[in-house]
Amino acid sequence: MTDGLAAREIIVFLGPSLAPEVARRILPACYLPPVACGDVLRCLRLEPRIIAIIDGVFENVPAVWHKEILLALEEGVVVFGASSMGALRAAELAAFGMTGVGRIFEAYRDGLYTDDDEVAVLHSSAVGEYRPLSEPMVNIRATIESAISAGVIRPELAELVTRCAKETFYQERSLKGAVERARSAGASSGEVDGLLRFVENDGYVDQKRLDALALIHTLARLEAPPVNVGRGERWVSRSPVLRMLQADVACQPFEQAHEWLPSEERIAVEARALESTFRRLCDLAHLLSLGDALARARGVPPLHGVGQSLDGDDFDLGAEATDDLDDAGFGRFVERLARTRGLVQSEEAGRRSARERRKYLLAMLRINGEYERFRGIPAALGAQCDAIVLRNLEGRDREKFRFFGRLAALWRVVDQAAKATRIAVSIPQDDLQDFADEFRRARGLESSQATRAWLRANNLDVPGFVNLMSDYIRLSILFGDARILTRGGAEIASDVCWFHDALRLGGFHPRVNRVAARVAPPLTLDGRL
Question: Which of 41, 64, 321, 397 is most buried, with most CB under 10 Å away?
Fold first, then answer.
């Protein structure tokens, strides 16, 4: 063991293969649920030295991408894999520096196993502590091999049971079920019963658990912090799809407020309780990231200074929103904010731009259900009604007015830039209809009567609704395809958690900070290897 590696520098993705409480007794580390697409990228902002992948999700949720593991290796992180998803990825990426541990990894590496379903299991959710609800093929194979070695069964029965298990869908797979199907297929009842007794008398081999333990013990026995020579060398191709994943991850917090997370990350997780406001904060994070990339691509000079007003919607902050940042962190945040301010102000000239930003603000309010809330019940229609809504919003909730004003200002800039690139989207009529239907369903507008009532409440006619849907689609595409703004220019900065910036800029950081302090006080991880 060594004192050179702190527990907070080791991240382990663990689920059904081994109980985390068992692993913690062996290895002090930061334990996360089974890995999913984007999780490794998200963990990189915690600056770990080791990432160990044991379990992972797939099927209903995208599995961890190979390239995000390669990015971790490029960053100098040592990545281990074993048992389940970790064994699969380690076998696939061994040539690139990922380290595999255990028999399952070796079987995949050597081509003995080729199917993903060898390690697949159905398991419960986090509430059920990821308890396995089916049995993996690798465990069944290991148990059958052990029974042969013990002289309990002959190779013929072993082959039949193995085939019966393999032919069963992984979510329904169990050794006992495979044995009974072998009995139904004509296997000797005496031999079958002997196999069942062998299993019941501690003959079952949980190979996934054994391999998971092997990896945990391997990390616990490290005599020195591992070194990955990849740091500093940029050799992973940033494909457009990878860039989009990086951008999306940078605009989202972690799923759970694990007690070992840094305070800023735990605060961001607690913002999920803001519900609809949380979704708007994610939107603001996306727009901030796109705006920053656009400003750097255009070479827009940062606009520093306090009180740089943009028609009442400035991009300045109070001290309370940044009082937890150290000097370096505060300086980086101020620089990003100055670039955003410079970009927006460079576009905010003349009456036309003011009218356009007002149009984006009204669209944002309608999309988010705020227009009808602040309309009241005026008889006015058209531009007069719009003015009433904006006046009511500014008068009753100044912070919300500023928040949506910032959203609108950034949306206008990036949307206009997307149009100028000539990659602006031509929206097929079928797509427009699909988005409109989804939009209505999400708001409970199932009937034509309900839809007409919503249109009246939002001061829209049918052509106005079509225009709103076009805006809504373009906004969705902007978030989903950063190439519209960054082709030939700067990349979106993926080393920044833009959600943190949005939380501060939106004015919610102090409030959520107080909630996070009550819910989950910081935990000091003193365990070291």
Answer: 64
